[in-house]
Structures are given as structure tokens and as C-alpha cells.
Design goal:
- There is one protein chain.
- By secondary structure, this protein is of the alpha/beta class.
- The protein has one domain: 2-Layer Sandwich (Nucleotidyltransferase, domain 5).
- About 45% of the residues lie in helices and about 15% in strands.
- The protein is built from nine helices and five strands, in the order ααββαβααββαααα.
- It has a five-stranded mixed sheet with strand order 3-2-1-4-5.
- Helix 3 crosses helix 7.
- The longest helix is centred in the last third of the chain and has 24 residues.
- The protein is globular.
Length: about 210
């Protein structure tokens, strides 16, 4: 690794280092993928990194990584972390309860599925209610750029969701899901106008139904 990359990765670990110094030993990072998508589930991942293995080469906010890099980093994360989990919420439930509530619920589910109980949960921007489990949650604005744990969770969530959408692309080839992963590209909106929504589309989202 180049010195600049090493420095960037060390900086990404500084938030956790400060929390470790405050006495938190088991820190879980949480992030979601698919919040703004027109189709498919919303996925959240939670991950507890090993303090001795926090430097993960090329790790970054998942949106800034190519698909190939995300998959390689995904394998590194799940191999070196203490534990990880994920949860998903279907388009039907998103339509019923709205995307804001679904976003908080799916992150909460991911946390409670961790096999090791965290001392602290840190999330990307959104505060999740974990009072029932006597867990503290701290939201961090742009957390996937500032926290190694949240960045790792963002990669896990994105990789899992992309794999789900690739499976859907074979069931619904008419929507170009292998390329847009359900997001509202110009082509996706045009295809929706031509053939209408499928069972995996979020009917409550603007532009999914013909107006």
C-alpha cells in the first residue's frame, strides 16, 4: 500500500480508537443499502470488527468502490471480523409502513441478529431505537466516510443487496436490473412506463406507477 492509502485507512479508524479509549470494547457499525431504490428490498448490515484487524485494504464508503473491489473487501471483512449480520425488508412492507420507518426497522433487526452483544452501536446518520435491548445508538453524519465499522457495514449491505438484485434480474429481465439494481435510472423509468411495475417494485415511490 502507498503511504497516502495507509494514512487514509488509519484516519478511518480514528473514530473507533476514540470510542475504545472511552471504554467501549465491542463496537458495532450499521448501514443500509437500497433506501432510494424503486425496486427490491432495503438491506441493513451490522458488523463488529476485530480491534486488531481494523486496517482493511481499500475499504471505503461502498458507493465509492467498484463492484469487483466491494466483493473482494466483503470477503476480507467477513473473514476478519468478530461477527456480522444482515436483515432485509420487502417492497410490500416498505409500501405499507413507508421507507423511513422501514429504514430504521431494518437496521434495528440487523443489530439484534449479531451473535455477540455490542457495547455500542454506531450508525450512518440515523439513530435507531435500541432502548428495549438496553443498547446505546449513536448516529454519525457521513459515517460511512468517517468510521471503519460503518464503512464495513455499508460494503456488506451493498454486496448482499446487489446479489439479490442480480437474482431478480433473471426473473424480471425487462427492467435492466442487472445494471440499475432497482434504482431510478432514466432507462428504468422508461421501462416502467412501457411495461408497468413488477411484484418487487415499490408502488408507493414516485414514478413507479403510471400517472
Amino acid at each position: 500500500m502507498r503511504l497516502r492509502e495507509v494514512k487514509r485507512l488509519i484516519d478511518l479508524c480514528l473514530y473507533e480508537d476514540e470510542l475504545y479509549c472511552c471504554g467501549y470494547n465491542r463496537i458495532a457499525g450499521v448501514d443500509e443499502a437500497g433506501r432510494g431504490s424503486l425496486a427490491g428490498p432495503i438491506i441493513a448490515a451490522a458488523v463488529m470488527l476485530d480491534r486488531k484487524k481494523m486496517i482493511i485494504e481499500q475499504l471505503n464508503d461502498s458507493k465509492k468502490l467498484s463492484s469487483g473491489k466491494r466483493n473482494r473487501i466483503f470477503r476480507k471483512i467477513i473473514k476478519s471480523c468478530i461477527c456480522w449480520s444482515f436483515a432485509k425488508i420487502s417492497p410490500a412492507v416498505i409500501d405499507r409502513i413507508n421507507i423511513g420507518k422501514a429504514n430504521l426497522l431494518v437496521m434495528r433487526k440487523a443489530v439484534i441478529r449479531l451473535k455477540v452483544r455490542p457495547d455500542l452501536v454506531i450508525t450512518d446518520a440515523f439513530k435507531i431505537d435500541l432502548d428495549h435491548f438496553k443498547l446505546q445508538s449513536i448516529p454519525i453524519t457521513k459515517g460511512d466516510e468517517l468510521s471503519v465499522s460503518i464503512a464495513a457495514a455499508s460494503v456488506i449491505a451493498k454486496v448482499i443487496r446487489d446479489r439479490i438484485m442480480l437474482k431478480y434480474s433473471r426473473i424480471y429481465p425487462e427492467y435492466d436490473l442487472e445494471n440499475n439494481k432497482g434504482y431510478g435510472t432514466k432507462k428504468h423509468f422508461q421501462l416502467l412506463k412501457e411495461v408497468g411495475p413488477s411484484k418487487i417494485h415499490r408502488i408507493s415511490f414516485k414514478g413507479v406507477l403510471k400517472r
